## 1
Amino acid sequence: MTSKPINLRQFRKRKQREDKARQAEANRVEHGTPKALREPVQLERQRLLRELEAKKLAAEDEDGETPNTEN
């Protein structure tokens, strides 16, 4: 029983291509959202945060504590 010899150069090249493909897939997931889709979502998030800030009942002072309004 003789096994087929393995060409190490081809093995290394194939492994390198597979690693590059995996990295490319990860980059597509991470950076794949087009600007045209990303901007409206970002603007909506900012609008909601401004709206939330406007609806807060008690303003915080510089220390991060709410002022005491009870006497």
## 2
Amino acid sequence: MQPITVAILDDNQFAIDGSRFRLSQSARIQVVKTASTWEEMAAYLETASPQVLILDVSAPISASNPTYYPIRNVISQLLRSCLRSGRMGESA
């Protein structure tokens, strides 16, 4: 059985480390990406399709722009993209 792939976006390294540690306790879960800015995660999502995204709603846009990225505004965009590509509803 293939592991469930997870990407984590959080600007708090402690939260990333804790999430990665807890998730690594299961052989069924593989953390494939961590990012501290939306810019970094968006670049990753251009070429990858993790099955689960853990998103901090107050993560900054980029390292040079600490403004919080309005993730709630892109959730529908992410869902539409997943639906178009057939990624929604895939089972591990």
## 3
Amino acid sequence: MTKMTVDDYVLEQLERLSDPELSNEELETELKRSDAISKLAKCSIENKEADIKSAELEVKQRLINYQYGKNSNNITALLQLPRGLDDEEV
């Protein structure tokens, strides 16, 4: 079994919905399935967004540690670190 992405599920569902031979009952079933896929995709995207924010905070903390020393846990500095800093600016 291959690993499918959210995009794969959405594209498959679009194909099913565009089938001109669907009966009204089958179309209703596919519309319900589409709603479920949409909700799951939204949750998946929200989880990925949270992962990205977590990674951003980790990178900021590493930059602060690099700039202020390994023992720095200054959350104020972490939150005020400008975006787009690269190693040359630190």
